[in-house]
Amino acid sequence: MNISPIINFFLQEGVPLETVILILMLPIIATFIAFLRQVVGIKAFGIYTPLIVTFAFLATNGLKYGIAVFISVILTGMLMRFALRPFRLLYLPRVAIMLTAVAILILGVLVVGGGMKRTGLASVSIFPILIMITIVEKFITVQIEKGDRMAIILALETLGISIVGYFIASSNFLIQFLAHYPWAILATIPINIVLGKWTGLRLTEYWRFKEVIKNM
Amino acid sequence: MLSYFKKSRKLLGMNSRNLEYIRPLNLKSAKRIADDKLLSKRILKKAGLPIPALIAKIRTSEELESFDWNALPDSFALKPNRGFGGEGIVVVYGKRKGTENIWIKADRSSVSVEDLKNHIRNILFGSFSLSSTPDIAFFEERIKLSKIFKPYSYKGMPDVRIIVYNGVPVMAMLRLATQTSGGKANLHLGGIGCGIDMATGTTTTAILGHQKPKIIEYLPETRLVLSGIKIPYWKQTLEMAVKAQKASSLGFLGADIALDRDRGPVFLELNARPGLAIQVANLAGLKRRLERVSELKIKTVEKGVRVGMDLFGGEIEEELEGISGKKVIGTVEKVKLIGKDGKEVEVEARIDTGAGISAIDKNLARDLGYGDAVQLWEDFHLDRVLSEEEIKALSENKTWKELEKHPDVIGVAKTFSSHGATYRIEIRLTLIVDKQEISSKLSIANRDGLAYPLLVGRRDLKRFLIDVNKVQPI
Questions:
Q1: In what side-by-side order are the strands of the sheet with B264-271?
Q2: Contact (CB<8Å) B283/A90
Q3: B208, B219, B361, B379: which could join B447 in a potential S-S bond, CB 3.0 to 4.6 Å?
Q4: ipTM beyond 0.95?
Q5: A147 vs B189: CB contact, 8 Å cut-off?
Q6: What domain count does chain A have?
Q7: Which residues contact A62 (CB under 8 A, 6 or more apart)?
Q8: pLDDT tens digits, one per residue of B218-261
Q9: Where are the domains of chain B?
Q10: Which one of B20, B128, B279 has the shortest CB-CB distance to A212?
Q11: What is the pLDDT of residues B38-59, one digit of tens each?
Q12: What's the CATH fold of domain B2-49+145-311?
């Protein structure tokens, strides 16, 4: 692999190449998410959640386990909301109970995975799992603010973005490109300035306002 | 394709709304007012606008524990101060009879003091507030549903959203609560939005939902047409919205105004980030309207309202009416009938230029006080399709003489069509079509199974032009 001098320097100082590349990916994925929001109109749970879910996917062994954990977390969050509704609890205790349920579920999934000789699942490091568990809080907040339907749509959008983000960040071409031209990440700044000044309709809005345009 | 993009430039999208309107026009200090309901109340009140009266507020859990529940009236609304999107609001309509401090909600479920306390604890904690910060709970006077909106509203208060920009009301929408929206009139919860003609305050198109709004004609599960609802005190409502902009200094304002049965229009809420679905409800682009008024210098409230009404009202029909001196109506119109003893009923009527005489359903005639005449007619077994021989027999027997003995029956009409013949009695009553009073001779028929209980024929349509494209009555 062609490695730029500055990255060589990092490596000599003891920073693993994988870490350097992951950090360089951060602005690229962030810009990608900003583009999806401003130009395409995919909202997801803000910028932070899809970003860290992408990285959680990268850190789990293979995409399928990441997706499995994500979906189980969201499903539990949803079920627990209905289960806890009659108790009318205050917000934090309610979230705490949900996290308990999610924790038990994940543990169960790992054990079942182990039993089925899916060792890949059990050997997933704990941090990506923890990251995904925290999505529950985001999900609940959106459920309260915008309703169940919207929360599910946004969760699916987050999942979609994270999956695409995963493929971008694990593409060999991009990894080699960043190793060779790490300064390229600075190009995301002017791109984001343009995105930040973009006042045109989002692609999804053409669809949303279809009837209006037809009737003009 | 090119024209598609050209047209789409008239629309206001999220990016443009945030960057070009909310950011520069709704400054932080102004947004603070909008996001704080108690503060908005104070400012609106100072500006002389009618608001729901504040009953009490609870700021801390100590205040909650020492709160005097007996001081609450029978009906009230409990709201979080920084709530948004209608979340966390509890409305009670009265106390349950024979109980102490148990209230009834719109869905007939009970609310005890303990329930309220729990809810208020959640509010204080910040469960319903923007960014989940601790909040204040307050009680305010409940707005009473106006008669006009009663049939259209599912257990909730309809309100009018008006977008005000540069001192001009540019677009408006009537919001109705539905079963799915749980009695809340917010579109993103599944409510209905009806576009409004700015000049007349009459509803035009209607949409259901928010993210991908669906155009609907009728109120779901009913035969109530959503267009043609005339909003009372329209000009006054617009004036209130413009005044609120001056008072709040929100340059791009969404004003929410409800109609109280006794007090008339009452200001509900200021909104610093009005949604974009209003464009679908009106089938019109907001951006184009904003651009049209951005250059204007509007000095007074009256001027702003006049400009809004003139620029964004249905001009074409007015023009046509000006030339012909006749009103333009559609093929289905709301018609008010004035029966005996001043009894009034409003129905939707089929405007039919193929018919000579107007016809009214027998049950509707009964409701209007012509029960005796209908009974007499039914006693002769005439409320059905007859054969030509039967009609001939009736004429020979001079049945009409018998029928006309009744004081309400002013004549008898025979009709012949491909379906068969009918033998009808005629009554006299007054119709009001588009504010025009018509003294009409109506034939009573059995219109069971037909979509409209009233058919208005040529004889009563002399003062109108019929526009077949105009599905919505205005």
A1: B214-216, B202-208, B192-197, B168-176, B159-165, B252-260, B264-271
A2: no
A3: B361
A4: no
A5: yes
A6: 1
A7: A120
A8: 888 788 888 888 899 999 999 999 999 999 999 999 999 999 99
A9: 2-49+145-311, 54-140, 327-466
A10: B279
A11: 999 999 999 999 999 999 999 9
A12: D-amino Acid Aminotransferase; Chain A, domain 1 (3.30.470)
